[in-house]
Structure formats: C-alpha cells, structure tokens
Amino acid sequence: MDSTKVTGPEIKNPDVGTSLAVQWLRICFAIFFSFLNRNRLKASREVESVDLPNCHLIKGIEAGAEDIDILPNGLAFFSVGLKCPGLHSFAPDKPGGILMMDLNEENPRALELRISRGFNLASFNPHGISTFIDSDDTVYLFVVNHPEFKNTVEIFKFEEEENSLLHLKTIKHELLPSVNDVIAVGPEHFYATNDHYFSDPFLKYLETYLNLRWTNVVYYSPNEVKVVAEGFDSANGINISPDKKYIYVADILAHEIHVLEKHPNMNLTQLKVLKLDTLVDNLSIDPSSGDVLVGCHPNGQKLFVYDPKNPPSSEVLRIQDILSEKPTVTTVYANNGSVLQGSSVASVYDKKLLIGTLYHRALYCEL
C-alpha cells in the first residue's frame, strides 16, 4: 500500500487555519457564556481567602496542571498544558506533557517524564489522568488526550527506573465523544466521564445552553463498552472510594457530587447527590481518611472569560463522611486569583497537599 501523504492545494498552511479556527471558537465561547445562566456559572460569587502556611508555587508549571494523581509510594503525576477551544492558555503553542514529583524528597521538584518513541508528542493534549497498580506491581497511567481537539484515552506503562512512560494503547470509541476524566479499575479497564453529549463544538455550546443534561459515565473494557450512568449537566471529575464499592462523579455546572454504587457487572446506580455552592471539577481521595478533596471554581464566568485584571479564583473543599446523611464540608484553601487561578484538582499525601489549575500554576503545601 502506498503510504505517501496526499494534501490538497487548499491546505498549504494548516497552522494558520487552525489558529483562526481556535480564535473564532474563543470568540463564540465568550459570547455564548455571556448568555448562559449566571447562576450556573456562579458569576457573582467571590471568595474570602483561606490561606495555608508553608506553600509555594511549583517551578516548571506555568500553563496548568489540570489533574494530579498520587501513587501510594508518594510519586505524584501531573497532567500539564491542557488546551481547549475557547479557554485561555499561557502556552498555546507548547504541547502538553506528564510531570512527576517525588513527595518523599525534602525539596521535591517536578520533572517531565519521557514518553516512548512512536507516540505523537506534538499533538499531546492531556486532560484527566488515573493510575492503576496491577497484581505484579506494574503501574499503568491512563490519560485523557485531545490531539487536535479529538478524544482518546491513552494507556502508558510507568517505568520508574528510567523516569519514562511506555505507550501501550490508544482507545477511541463512539461512546467517548467528549471525555473529561477517567478512573482506572484494571490494566485496560476504566470509567470515563463525557462532559458533553456531542463532539461538534457548536452542538456542545447548544446542549450546554439548553441544559439538556445528556452527559454520562461510560465503562470501558476490551470486551464491553457501555453507558452506566447518565442525566448529568456536565459530568467532570470521577474517582472511586477506597473500598472500591462506590464511584464519585462531579457535575460541574450543576454544582453537585453524585455518589453511585458499583455492581459486579460494573453498572452504577445512584445513591445520593451532594449539593455545593461552587463549580466542582476534579475529585481526589485522601488515602489516610477516605475524605474527598475537590478542586473547585468559585466563579465560572471568570474562568471561561479570562481577564488578567480580574482573574479566576481558586477553592479546595474537603468532604468528610460523604456516605452519611450530613457530610461535613470544609474549605481547605481559597484564593482570589492573586496566587492561584482556576483550581481544578487537589491531592494529598502524608500531610503534603498539591493543588493544580486548569491553565495557570500549581501549588505545593506542607500541612
């Protein structure tokens, strides 16, 4: 078979076309959100600062650390450099990557992991991530990827001695049209959230504006792919309880966290919904207590319509006893954007807290 690439004369400079398309989408996005229900975006909400001692910004993270996952041994993975149509970016021309930090070190540094040859690094656009440790101690890293704003889930093997990732598999499926986050439950098995029902940008805007609540959670395995929960406004972060019996799903525009029971056939049934007064993004589990840590956006309008003079704020919540009738919700950290803009995730390990953002910096705190 002839593998020669054939390009039409109208695509002499694809970068220009791509740039114009992204600019057009950003303009449409800003106009669209100006008409969206202000309550869904919490457009008038401001936060009072809740500071933590012994915090500093992590060197080398300048354009977002949208998701963070920490292994039981203290190795933390960062998904950095996410770019989405309509959203601000501090490094629009730089590919994304995966960084690692050893939280057992006295002064841990974030180092970028090498990725095996054959994987397209130039279009790497990582979003939600999740790790899975197999029975033979092999560590798999699952990464939601948006190459050229498409939707895939990449599976890597983490090779600790080489500080590298070996790419194993790219997963695409019609039931994964707009993937946001994943939680791995096997070496090739995961739950994923779709934050939109459609993949087309215009239809995405329309479904959000009409509040169709068509987004869902999908279970993927090599043998079966199926929708296991649906009816979300915009399904976002996802995680699993320490005993593996429950799945937690953040619905960002509905300001809710859903608790779902996991069954042997991997189907999910809803147990409860926790209402919050903020836009909930990614969910992490405190391994020592089972508490849920939530990276939140107090004011979504500031997040989506970026103004450097009035930047998006940050908020981290801790939820204790989420299965009880009255879970305890406390604010761990809050900032008006003067230090950290657009917090999307918070993860804890051995009294160390990491806070990532959608497109800004990342914070390291000793609790």
TrEMBL record:
Membrane topology qualifier: Peripheral membrane protein
Residues annotated as catalytic: H127
Disulfide bonds: C55-C365
GO BP terms in the entry: lactone catabolic process; response to toxic substance
Pfam name, any one: Arylesterase
Keywords: Calcium, Disulfide bond, Glycoprotein, Hydrolase, Membrane, Metal-binding, Signal
E.C. number(s) listed in UniProt: 3.1.1.2
Catalytic activity from the UniProt record: an N-acyl-L-homoserine lactone + H2O = an N-acyl-L-homoserine + H(+); a phenyl acetate + H2O = a phenol + acetate + H(+)
Location(s) in or outside the cell: Membrane
Glycosylation sites noted in the Swiss-Prot or TrEMBL record: N282, N336
Gene3D superfamilies to which the protein is assigned, alphabetical: TolB, C-terminal domain
GO terms for MF: acyl-L-homoserine-lactone lactonohydrolase activity; arylesterase activity; metal ion binding; protein homodimerization activity
Modifications after synthesis and translation: Glycosylated.
Annotated binding of Ca(2+), by residue: E66, D67, I129, N180, D181, N236, D281, N282
UniProt keyword tRNA-binding present: no
Main enzyme class: hydrolase
Cofactor note: Binds 2 calcium ions per subunit.
Cellular compartments per GO CC: extracellular region; plasma membrane
UniProt-listed InterPro entries: 6-blade_b-propeller_TolB-like (IPR011042), Arylesterase (IPR002640), Paraoxonase2 (IPR008364), Serum_paraoxonase/arylesterase (IPR051288)
Assembly mode: Homotrimer.
Function: Capable of hydrolyzing lactones and a number of aromatic carboxylic acid esters.
Family: Belongs to the paraoxonase family.
Name of the protein: Paraoxonase
Source organism of the structure: Capra hircus (Goat)
Gene assigned in the entry: PON2
